[in-house]
Hints:
By secondary structure, the chain is an alpha/beta fold. It has 2 domains: 3-242, Aspartate Aminotransferase, domain 2, CATH 3.40.640; 245-376, Aspartate Aminotransferase, domain 1 (Alpha-Beta Complex), CATH 3.90.1150.10. It contains 14 helices and 12 strands. It has helices at 3-9, 50-62, 74-81, 99-107, 124-130, 153-162, 175-178, 213-226, 232-242, 245-266, 283-289, 304-313, 343-348, 365-376, and strands at residues 67-71, 90-94, 115-119, 135-141, 166-170, 188-192, 206-210, 271-273, 296-300, 318-319, 329-331, 355-359. Strands 1-7-6-5-4-2-3 form a 7-stranded mixed β-sheet, with helices on both faces. A 5-stranded mixed β-sheet has the order 8-9-12-11-10. Helix 7 links the parallel strand 5 and strand 6 (188-192). Helix 2 packs parallel to helix 9. It starts with a helix and ends with a helix. The relative contact order is 0.13.
Amino acid sequence: MGFSTDAIHAGQISDPVTGAVITPLYQTSTYEQDELGKHKGYEYGRTQNKTREAMEANIAALEKGKYGIAFASGLAATHALMSLVKSGDHIIVSDNVYGGTYRLFEQNLTAYGLEYSWVDTSNLSNIENAIKENTKMVFVETPTNPMLVLTDLKGVAVIAKKNDLLSVCDNTFMSPYFQNPLTFGIDIVLHSTTKYLNGHSDVIGGILITSNEKVHERIRYIQNAAGGVPAPFDCWLVLRATKTLAVRMKQHDENARAFANFLVNLGAAEKVIYPGLQNHPQHELAKEQMSGFGGMVSADFGSLEKAKKVLNNVKIFILAESLGGVESLISHPASMTHATVPKEEREKFGLTDGLVRFSVGIEDVEDLIEDVERAIG
């Protein structure tokens, strides 16, 4: 099936009682049993919920995977992912990942004996050089947040398999519409469903997708045992949202291309970063492993003072954390999403105080351009 067809139909179930075409919201904490030891396959809401199962199957199909395991947030999914390793194990991570991922790994899980190496995974030799005897996993984010650095997914998969490592890709920025890491040999895909998959800024959630049965069994066990599951209503909202994922992502992409070119031509920023620009260092790789360039654009205005002028004077762009909603958002990563990353570490990969991140929405792009042009003055 095509992407849009799967987005609308995969995992969907009509109401068995009325025939309602929309998967019902099963808002229940428990299930009646016919008699002791005999039930309909459902015992307790943390363990099983048909609305959640439908959403998991839907997103798994979009990522071309067999299994989806949903969680109450992207970080809850990331935390569950770490159940695949144990104390004393070593994990290689892209040096520029979402700030919450850095905080979870470096400031929390190291206390439990996990060891992390932060490397520029855009250079595959850096991954190979970082491998130790106790290395068990490679975790990449591509494109990265917010520097939009790409990592060669096929190359990562080859290195991981050669060294018997699990490979993971945070695919939140691209969504399954533009990138499918499993098709390049990656073992596990991570999403914050809060972002493009839901796309309406009204849900917090996360999901892991894999075709590896053993990985699925372990993470499914953790989903139930640790209990970080999403609410049925949140699952229902995401399930509704994925039906329009294709049309939304097309518009995000179209708007972001025009917006990035506008920023380049305006000349107010010292650097404009967008994989769709020909001067992006990995523009060719972007064309190879992505079917579009997405809706995220970053620009370095050279100083905090100049960045503040943009951040504080826009009217249509909303100054807020998060991304991927239909409305355009603007943020200052150094003091918002990546505030927990030490300044010297941020600046190593170019995340300066002058950097502004734009989540380009699906409004009329002419209005977005006029909004920023007016803010800069």
